[in-house]
Amino acid sequence: MTEYDTTQAEPDTGPVRVNSWNGWDPLRHVVVGRADGAVVQAPEPAVQRDFPDDGYPLGTYGPMPADMTAEANQQLDDFTAMLRGRGIRVDRPTPVDFNRQVSTPDWTQETMSGCMPPRDLLLTVGNEVLEATMSYRSRWHEYLCYRPLLQRLFDADERMRWEAAPKPRLTEASYRPGFWDTYNTLTTEEQLARVRDYDLVLTEEEPLFDAADVARFGKDLFVQLSFVTNRSGYKWLKRHFPDHRVHAVTSTNTHPLHIDATWVPLRPGLVLHCGERLADAELMEFFKLNDWEIVEAVQPASWEHPPKLSYCSPWLAGNMLNLDANTLCVEEKEVRLAEQLAGYGFEVVPVPFRAVGPFGGGLHCATVDIEREGTVEDYFPRRYGRF
């Protein structure tokens, strides 16, 4: 037992097995993040944090307030207890000192970030767990929080493949100089044009991607080009998974960051989309051609009362966790969304999780599948356009 273990007994779920091909098969084993020690990141080329009303104007950084951290950890612990009560095995990362200077031979960064959103770093495809490159210098060392856990999985399951994408150098050549100074002065339409052309903060100097920019649909993987995932990262993933069809998609959001709150698989044949803007027309046609229904999400409740120190979009409401193809965990205040989903036959499990948002995301961000029942399947037998 370590100081980070919770008191809830681990359910007797049998031998450890790494196996997950999508986000809706019955969940048997999952990782839930922690808020311990999280910080508002120090400035760096890829990211800006500007919270003047909350005591952290642009250029300032440091530990998240203790009361916010405690509340987020309580909700994460309660969520863990609920999952274990349903017979799901839960692992947790091991936090390090994030409020410290870190460096490589190429750069020095004044702080790290945290280990709340494991979905950003780890991608499970079948019996493989892949460590993403990450694109922020403040998150370059974050893999250290998960190495004890990954070692245990590797020791317990002889079929597990433990992979790590090439660690990037993240020199100045990986970023467009002065990007934010220019981008923040553009109109919405000008920003959307930059997104469509993938003319964003990252260059193509080296492969860069966050795991949370990958949506898993069995045989098909959809990789969103964003502020943290470049074309080179997509190409690396395409070569790394030669038995999959790996597709690059662009967003219609002015600040694309992770696909799992905008294009959300619910079960075979049904996908939820952020209601703010339509997805790429060709992507939508591809799904419709393969008999998938695309549901436009209702406006989230979080739109009305944004939390302090949160860099997440209000559409974080769509960042949900499937327990199986008929059961969804949804943030408890998102009543309208829960009602919408119930209309499609889902059992909705309301989960208090609003305090976790400022630490890096919602219920999907805060988790990583290790085991779901099921095998790889082809949900898209018909091809269309570039897909």
UniProtKB/TrEMBL annotation:
Domain of life: Bacteria
Region feature (Disordered): 1-20
Listed InterPro entries: AmidinoTrfase
Keyword field: Kinase, Serine/threonine-protein kinase, Transferase
Coiled coil: none
GO function terms (MF aspect): protein serine/threonine kinase activity
Keyword presence, Hydrolase: no
Compositional bias segments (type: Polar residues): 1-10
Matches recorded under Gene3D superfamilies: L-arginine/glycine Amidinotransferase, Chain A
PANTHER family the record matches: GLYCINE AMIDINOTRANSFERASE, MITOCHONDRIAL (PTHR10488)
Family recorded in the similarity comment: Belongs to the amidinotransferase family.
Protein name: Serine/threonine protein kinase
Phylogenetic lineage: Bacteria, Bacillati, Actinomycetota, Actinomycetes, Kitasatosporales
